[in-house]
């Protein structure tokens, strides 16, 4: 399993021609505190070659577990009614990608985590002590792992962690680790979404 630094990429299909899909897992841990803790939420944006969301329905999160583009969905283990725990000290969400079913007009899939302002009020990443994205084979064996840096964590409300992108006839993964000080509004601006 490879561990990446920001802005590094690794080929997935080229090194494993039989790879038919992956499971992308985002995990986080939060410093325990006496007061309210932030509520991280993961989402994926399905983009065309221009880096923008194909449609408003090409967004995956707890309230929309599938997209207009087939082959990309929130894992059944994490899909379902959103019920934030009383204390969100650890969490994880998984998105399954079946390369065989992803339409040709999909150029990349971006993975974002944001602090949900509707659960415990406005917050930032300052209490988040780790934010990790793992790309695994369908059998659960890990291919690549990225521990996102949390620079200026007290100033950011959302983070683009990484992205799957087309690499010739196959797929690759790029670690990003870029924060948004304006939260979901910044994500919406970048990807052409009204969020």
Topology (elements, then pairings):
Layout (H helix, E strand, L loop, with lengths): L1 E3 L4 E3 L9 E10 L9 E8 L11 E2 L11 E3 L15 E9 L9 E8 L1 H4 L7 E9 L5 E6 L10 E10 L2 E11 L2 H9 L4
Parallel strand pairs: 1-10
Antiparallel strand pairs: 2-12, 3-7, 3-9, 4-5, 4-8, 6-7, 8-11, 9-10, 11-12
In short:
It is globular, with a radius of gyration of 16 Å.
Please explain how this structure is put together.
It contains two helices and twelve strands, in the order E-E-E-E-E-E-E-E-H-E-E-E-E-H. It has 195 residues and is mostly beta strands. The chain has one domain (2-191): Lipoxygenase-1 (Sandwich), CATH 2.60.60. A six-stranded mixed beta sheet has the order 1-10-9-3-7-6, with no helix packed on it. A six-stranded antiparallel beta sheet has the order 2-12-11-8-4-5. Strand 11 and strand 12 (170-180) form a beta hairpin. The radius of gyration is 16 Å and the shape is globular. The model has no long low-confidence stretch (mean pLDDT 88).
Give short descriptive properties of this protein:
195 residues; six-stranded mixed beta sheet; six-stranded antiparallel beta sheet; Lipoxygenase-1
Unreliable sequence segments: none
The CATH superfamily title: sav2460 like domains
* Count of all domains: 1
Total beta-strand segments: 12
| Major pleated sheet | 6 strands, mixed
The CA-CA distance between the termini, in Å, is 34 Å
Q: Tell me the strand percentage band.
A: 35-45%
Gyration radius (Cα, Å) is 16 Å
Helix percent band: under 10%
Shape, per Cα inertia axes: globular
Under CATH, the topology can be stated as Lipoxygenase-1
CATH architecture annotation name: Sandwich
Main structural class: mainly beta
Name the average pLDDT.
88
Q: Tell me the series of helices and strands, N- to C-terminal.
A: EEEEEEEEHEEEEH
The largest sheet has its strands arranged as 1-10-9-3-7-6
Number of helices: 2
In the CATH scheme, the class would be: Mainly Beta
